[in-house]
Amino acid sequence: MTEEQMTRMRTHRNNIYRYRHLLQTKLTELERDFIEKRLAEEQLNLERLAVSGSTFAAAPRNIRGVIARARSKADLG
């Protein structure tokens, strides 16, 4: 895995942490929907990067649930 890939993974992990923290705050439904969508995108990007680098990166356990919720909301919107 290259240094650039490691940096990108670190950035995605930091963004995931930040979005999870924001979800624990008081948000409007619109804000919450936006952050959940961004969280799902970041987790998916991290997973893709880990697969492309032929390295296992510990993805959050609830990644599939977050992604499914974000996709279903996108389909409804």
Write the layout of secondary structure elements.
Blueprint: H1 3-23, H2 29-52, H3 63-76
Helix pairs in contact: 1-2, 2-3
Write a structural description.
The structure is a single chain. It is built from 3 helices and no strands. It has helices at 3-23, 29-52, 63-76. It starts with a helix and ends with a helix. α2 packs across α3 (63-76). It has one domain (3-76). With 77 residues, the protein is an all-alpha fold. 77% of the residues lie in helices and 0% in strands. The chain is globular. The relative contact order is 0.16.
Features:
77 residues; mainly alpha; 3 helices
Q: What is the radius of gyration?
A: 13 Å
Tally of distinct domains: 1
pLDDT average, as an integer?
82
Helix-strand topology string: HHH
Spatial separation of the terminal alpha carbons: 38 Å
State the total count of DSSP E strands: 0
Residue ranges: pLDDT <50 for 5 or more in a row?
Answer: none
- Major beta sheet summary: none
Write down the overall geometry.
Answer: globular
**Helix tally?**
3
Structural class: mainly alpha
Could you estimate the helical fraction of the residues in percent? over 70%
- Sheet-strand content, in percent, reads under 5%
